[in-house]
Amino acid sequence: GESVGLHLPTLSVQEGDNSIINCAYSNSASDYFIWYKQESGKGPQFIIDIRSNMDKRQGQRVTVLLNKTVKHLSLQIAATQPGDSAVYFCAEIGMDSSYKLIFGSGTRLLVRP
Amino acid sequence: GAVVSQHPSWVICKSGTSVKIECRSLDFQATTMFWYRQFPKQSLMLMATSNEGSKATYEQGVEKDKFLINHASLTLSTLTVTSAHPEDSSFYICSARDARGLVGELFFGEGSRLTVL
């Protein structure tokens, strides 16, 4: 079945610390993975992506790690800032003809000042 | 950057009425659009894939007669919630794929919050 979260776990971090948000994906055939940030009442915003032939990709203050063996994805945010407070979702795209984007369960990140 | 616009951003309606939500790609052509529903404190659940000029493909458990999708042009897809009931109250979000872009390049609208009284 599709991976859909039924509740949102919360990660609370101190401003300036690093954050690590984890995600387990469901489809071993998925080829492409994306992390999104969603603020309250808004649509998802793209953060960073990674293809299945990579295990790490870095952006500005963010790093995504992919472990295909255990179907695990993580998002690392360096020097977390108050503006990083949001809900974070991982999403996967399977390389079938529809290229559907399926969201995983989210994590709420709270940054303490 | 690419922009996807949804309208209305919020709507309140009486039970039994139908509500139409529009999703427009403002500066690119979208052969494929996706409709999601999101309940409070939950993830986005894919409802259907909307393809320009053809019938939408619905995910398992989503009633196609309840959620009518029309993708009549390369820049517009509409979702109509027919005979809405309070349990249909949710945040509906569309995303669009640029026909000229990468498979993974999807642009999201800002969502439409539906409240059915």
What does this protein look like?
The complex is a heterodimer of chains A (113) and B (117). With 113 residues, chain A is mainly beta. Chain A contains no helices and nine strands. Chain A has a five-stranded mixed beta sheet with strand order 1-9-8-3-4, with no helix packed on it. Chain A has a four-stranded antiparallel beta sheet with strand order 2-7-6-5, with no helix packed on it. The N terminus of chain A is likely disordered. With 117 residues, chain B is mainly beta. Chain B contains no helices and eleven strands. In chain B, the strands form two sheets. In chain B, strands 2, 4, 5, 6, 9, 10 and 11 form a seven-stranded mixed beta sheet that branches. Chain B has a four-stranded antiparallel beta sheet with strand order 1-3-8-7, with no helix packed on it. The interface between A and B is medium-sized, with 28 and 26 residues.
Keywords, please?
heterodimer, A: 113 residues, mainly beta, 5-stranded mixed sheet, 4-stranded antiparallel sheet, disordered N terminus, B: 117 residues, 7-stranded mixed sheet, globular
H-E order of chain B: EEEEEEEEEEE
Number of E-type strands of chain A: 9
Oligomer: heterodimer
Number of helices of chain A: 0
Runs of chain B in which pLDDT lies below 50 for 5 or more consecutive residues are: none
Mean pLDDT of chain A: 90
- The percent of residues in helical segments of chain B reads under 10%
Given helix and strand content, the structural type of chain A is mainly beta
Shape of chain B: globular
Query: How is the main sheet of chain B built?
Result: 7 strands, mixed
